[in-house]
Amino acid sequence: MGKGKVTIKDVAKVAGVSTGTVSYALAGDPRINEKTRKLVEEAAHKLNYIPNEVGRSLRSRKTETIAFVIPNTSSHVFSHPYFLKLLEGITEVLEEYSYNLQISTTPSEKEEAKAYDKILRSNRVDGIILSSASLKDRNILRMVESGFPVVYLGKWHHEEVLTVERDDFRGAYEAASHLAGLGRRRIVHISGPLDHQESVDRLEGYKQALSDHQILYDASLVVEKDFSREAGAAAVEELRAANVRYDGIFAGNDLMAIGALKQLKRMNIAVPEEVSVVGFDDIDMADAVTPELTTVHQPMREIGRMAAEKLLAVLQDREVPEKRSIVSTRLIIRESCGGQPQ
Amino acid sequence: MGKGKVTIKDVAKVAGVSTGTVSYALAGDPRINEKTRKLVEEAAHKLNYIPNEVGRSLRSRKTETIAFVIPNTSSHVFSHPYFLKLLEGITEVLEEYSYNLQISTTPSEKEEAKAYDKILRSNRVDGIILSSASLKDRNILRMVESGFPVVYLGKWHHEEVLTVERDDFRGAYEAASHLAGLGRRRIVHISGPLDHQESVDRLEGYKQALSDHQILYDASLVVEKDFSREAGAAAVEELRAANVRYDGIFAGNDLMAIGALKQLKRMNIAVPEEVSVVGFDDIDMADAVTPELTTVHQPMREIGRMAAEKLLAVLQDREVPEKRSIVSTRLIIRESCGGQPQ
DNA sequence: CTGAAAGCGCTAACAA
DNA sequence: TTGTTAGCGCTTTCAG
């Protein structure tokens, strides 16, 4: 039996009905007589018939495929541990609905526009889940506003667009407050790239926490880095070189926190005795390091699930309960801070 | 401009040629006159024409999409850190060739057969990269032997099938030899599930290394686990409960090694002073833990690249240089063993 | 070198 | 309740 050789015509012939009837019967259309349906199903089963999805898509204008798009500008996302959790959540839901998943990374930045156009208009996918990107990225804007079904993973300043967001502000607020509550007064913030909304929000949460604890904001304690371990280590090194004194670090993500931890160890600075450290993300690595990292947990798998559910609701013309969904974070206290807040 | 509304007909009309000519012109067919080609290209550009891939696929019987299939039986792969590297390698190559990537996880085991059939015969993808699976999995067998273009990531006992393999035996051999070279004599092996070829090969490499170092194989030192951190910790705990004495651990992967490390720490057993530990994989976590983990590096990104290259060679009727590709591993010596071998 | 036209496999509108 | 048929958008023979 050659692959894909048996078509709807063959089934129709064997069942002694027309192709239209086969199509309806297999789709479970109520208009088809029970007996005929049985007949068709038997024929299909005997021939081991599997519909050609391409023919189906062309006619019905549906692919039952969605794309998970990772913008070039945030290509780092791709190598981040939490990306897997996101993917897990998405695939779980898609499996339930028998949808397919396509992964689209965009190539070089200059070809991005074309790449997006292609995704949107080549009719290969019905909708997309868009990973968060730089605020400067104009292509994202076009994508989101194209009218094509999109769920954006992050905050988007537009009424109509569907999003699943973390509460970055609140997460950061709690993290920094925790440090302040432990008596830390000179708290460094190693932020992610500030052209990313999440970084901005985390920085704001940090500032608010300081303010609420009567700590004066000191710009020399904030360093902007790129979310990598190396950057976290570099930040600590730079602070040393600049002779900055501090007793706490709130890092914009776990990788940077872990890099910082390592550098502190190299410099023989004791964590948490001399410096308390908090991260953000709660990746698997966070409780593998020594000391175990206190961090802000974000339910990435759940976010993936929600995004997929939301997108499918649109595609299947079901009610979308809320345009913006905001999932909350949770502070996980481990060893890198030294005890519960006072 | 509505999405995907402009078709080849529109372009033909504007350019004043037939649709066939447009098709050829845009494909760069040399039969088309230079002038006509220009004309068509201009029209296409002016209309912002993007071909409907579904129509194209139906006619040409090519989707320019490949699937990366993760079998249910090895669903753990999905949550493993190196999976991302694999994905990175694959997407890099696919981007070069403008191919699309579909991720297929198979649902519950009982529906696996049907799911595979669908992937193979619904004409949605041109070929697949198949992640390694249980040796017992009959569905994999069918898939590999179906004649559909498949690249299998692992060893496969069949002449015709294309594979990209690690040298698990040699990697394990070197790991265990390293321990033996450090004077370790009672070396535990925490193996992965033994219905996976890679686990079997690593076990064999371990045995060979023992034998070459005049160490008697002791079955009580081998425990079979499931590749997770928890399992690694559990293994160490079980050894304690059974009062087994040992001075080295070779774990079947890094996660188990890291789990073991943590449990040893809980039990106040010093690494590497009392027990030397080696892992396998060299995931990012390996050099984040304390002590940093000595492990066997496998170039997952390169493996992904090779698999994609190989599959594309088949799909594009190019020469496939070798059916089986075996990439070698490399022992990375860090802190968890205590020094260079004698 | 280009146009006309068949047809990939399927669905859905219309007829019967 | 079922059959007939047009046509989704494209590629690729076959003529010219």
From TrEMBL, chains A, B:
Source taxon at top rank: Bacteria
One of the record's GO molecular function terms: DNA-binding transcription factor activity
Domain HTH lacI-type: 6-60
SUPFAM superfamilies for this protein: lambda repressor-like DNA-binding domains (SSF47413), Periplasmic binding protein-like I (SSF53822)
Keywords: DNA-binding, Transcription, Transcription regulation
PANTHER family assigned: HTH-TYPE TRANSCRIPTIONAL REGULATOR GALS (PTHR30146:SF109), LACI-RELATED TRANSCRIPTIONAL REPRESSOR (PTHR30146)
Protein's name according to its UniProt entry: LacI family DNA-binding transcriptional regulator
Lineage of the organism: Bacteria, Bacillati, Bacillota, Bacilli, Bacillales
